[in-house]
Amino acid sequence: MLHRHLAIALALAGSLLVLPAVAAEQDKPTPTAKEILARSTPAEWRTPDPQNLLFMQLPTGRVVIELAPDFTPLHAANIRTLVRNHYFDGLAIIRVQDNFVTQWGDPNDDDNGDKSKIRSLGKASRTLPPEFTRPIDAKLPWTPLPDGDVYAPEVGFSEGFPVARDPASGQQWLAHCYGMVGVARDVAPETGSGSSLYAVIGQAPRRLDRNLAVAGRVLEGMPLLSGLPRGAEPMGFYTKPAQRVAIESVRLAADIPAKDRPAIEVLRTGSASFAALVEAKRNGRNAFYARPAGKVDLCSIDVPVREAKAAH
Amino acid sequence: MLHRHLAIALALAGSLLVLPAVAAEQDKPTPTAKEILARSTPAEWRTPDPQNLLFMQLPTGRVVIELAPDFTPLHAANIRTLVRNHYFDGLAIIRVQDNFVTQWGDPNDDDNGDKSKIRSLGKASRTLPPEFTRPIDAKLPWTPLPDGDVYAPEVGFSEGFPVARDPASGQQWLAHCYGMVGVARDVAPETGSGSSLYAVIGQAPRRLDRNLAVAGRVLEGMPLLSGLPRGAEPMGFYTKPAQRVAIESVRLAADIPAKDRPAIEVLRTGSASFAALVEAKRNGRNAFYARPAGKVDLCSIDVPVREAKAAH
C-alpha cells in the first residue's frame, strides 16, 4: 500500500475497515493476507528439515536460508560440508549490484584479493556437476499457478520454492525470484561449489534460470542483504575492504541443540491457506486497491515464514 | 554475471573473450550491451525535455527523475508547481519497505508527524483526477515486446517508459517496473497530488498498475533509494526521525541555466540499438550464459541513460 497515512493503511491491512451495510457483495473487501494467515491451521505449516536450514550471522542480524536438496542435492551437501568446516566464518559480503544480487564469499578469491590467503574448502568439492535443472518427478509436490509465465511453459511451487518447468524436455528448475539463493561460479558450468553464494535483490533475473544452480531461499533477513550500499566497482564489487559486511558465522540448524533452535515454520505451498493467499494476490480488493490485477506472476508471491516464540 | 573473478567477468562483458577460430557460428558470443551502446549513433539518443527532468539532491548524491506528462499530465504539472515552490526541500525519505518501495514526502503528514507542521502545498492542488490509465493513441510512440506479459494483453515501450495496454478497453498505462516513480495517495483515488512519491525497489508490483498514478522514472541514482536500511515500522516506515534521509532540494532542469544542466541523454526506445539490446536480453549468449532465455519480460529491460561530459 502506498498511503500517506499509516493509520489508514493499517486499518485497511487489518479488519477495521467499515463499509456501508448496503455495499454490494462485489464491493466487499476480500480477505487480507493477515486475515488468511490468522485462520491457517497448524498442519498447514512445516518445520524445515534442520539439515537444510542455515543461520548466517551478520553484525546487523541473522539471515536464515533454506536449502533445496530436491533440486540441487550435491550443492546442498557441499554447502553443509563448508558450513560444518566453519568455512564462511570471517568471510564477507563482497558485492551488492543494484537491481540484481548481493553476493558473499572469500574476498581474497577475486581480483583484488590476496591469492595466497584464499581459504581452503577443506573436504568440500571445488567443482560440482551443474544441477541447473532436474527431471520433473511426480513424487515432488507441485502447486501450479494459473496465469502463465513469460519464460517457461509452466510455473508453480514445490516445497516452498518457486519452480519453472518444461514438460517438453521433462525438466524443472528453481526460478531466480527475489530472495532466492544461487551458486556463483566461473565460466565453466561445473565451477560452482557453494563457497560463494548470491541472493536476488531486484527484479527476478530469470535469464539466469538454467544457467546457474539455485541452492535455496532466504526465509528471514532479506533486508540485511538488500538494504546495503551498492558497490562502486563494476558489477557492484566494493572498492574498499572496509565497505564489506563481515559474516560472523554460518551454522546448520542440525548442529544447534534442538532446544536452542529458532522455531521457524514455512507455510506449505500445497495448503488451502497458500491457495487463498495466491487468490488474494490475484483478485484481492479493498477500498484502496479497487481494481484487482486478476493475475499474479510467480515471483510476486511470497511464501510466508513465521517463528514461534520459544516455550522455555 | 555471477563470477567469482572480476577479471573474467569484465573480459566477458567487454570484447576480450577469445574463442577458438573453429568455433561454430552459433557458439560465437552475441554482442554485449556495452558493445551495442558503443555502436549507437547520436541520433538514437534523446535529451529529456527540461520541463520533465527533476534533480533530487540527497546528502548521498543526486537522483534524476524524468516525468511522463503524456501519461500523467496533471500530475506532472502539479509536481512542477511543487518543485518550483521548493516544496520538497527539507522533506525526507519516510519509508523503505523491502522488495516494494522507497517513499518520500512530508514526515509530518503521517501518524507520527506533527499535524500543525504539515507543509503547505502552496498553489499546487491537493487532489487530482487519478490518471491511472490513458487512451491508446497512435500519435504516441510504441515499441511492442514480443514475449507477452502475465498481467496485460500487450506490453512495450513508449518514449523510454515501460507501458502495458489493453486494446479491448483502448487504455494504456505506465507499468510499475523497478525504478518507476508513483504517486502515493490516501484511500480515495483523487487524493494523490505528487507531494509524496515512491520508487519501486523490488520485484515489479504490477498489481499496483491502474490503481495508482505513475509519474515517471528514475534515470539516475536508484542505488541511493534502494540501498537504504528498511524501516522497522509496518510498511517500512522509519521508527525514528533520525533514520530518515533528508531531501536537500528538488529542482527542475528548466530552472537551471542551460550551461549548468547535466547533459543527460536517454536511448530512444524506438531505436535500432534499443531493439538490439532487447534481443541481447532475449537471446544473448556467451561463454558464461550458454543457455539464452529466448524471452524477456517488460520489467527486465533497462532503458540506458548516459551523461555527456560538460564541454565547457
Topology (SSEs and partners):
The structure is a homodimer.
Chain A: H1 6-13, H2 33-38, E1 45-46, E2 53-58, E3 61-67, H3 73-84, E4 92-96, E5 101-105, E6 134-135, E7 143-144, E8 154-158, E9 161-166, E10 171-174, E11 180-183, E12 197-200, E13 214-220, H4 222-226, E14 249-252, E15 263-267, H5 272-283, E16 305-308
Antiparallel strand pairs in A: 1-15, 2-3, 2-14, 3-13, 4-5, 5-12, 6-10, 7-8, 8-9, 9-10, 11-12, 11-13, 15-16
Structure, briefly:
The structure is a homodimer of 312-residue chains. Chain A is an alpha+beta fold.
Write up what this structure looks like.
Two copies of one chain form a homodimer. With 312 residues, chain A is α+β, with helices and mostly antiparallel strands. The first copy, chain A, folds into two domains: 21-46 and 265-308, no CATH class; 50-260, Beta Barrel (Cyclophilin). The first copy, chain A, has five helices and 16 strands. The first copy, chain A, has helices at 6-13, 33-38, 73-84, 222-226, 272-283, and strands spanning 45-46, 53-58, 61-67, 92-96, 101-105, 134-135, 143-144, 154-158, 161-166, 171-174, 180-183, 197-200, 214-220, 249-252, 263-267, 305-308. In chain A, strands 4-5-12-11-13-3-2-14 form an eight-stranded antiparallel β-sheet. In chain A, strands 6-10-9-8-7 form a five-stranded antiparallel β-sheet, with no helix packed on it. Chain A has a three-stranded antiparallel β-sheet with strand order 1-15-16, with no helix packed on it. The longest helix of chain A has 12 residues, at 73-84. Chain A is globular. Residues 6-23 of chain A have low confidence and may be disordered. At the A-B interface, α1, β5 and α4 of A face α1, β5 and α4 of B.
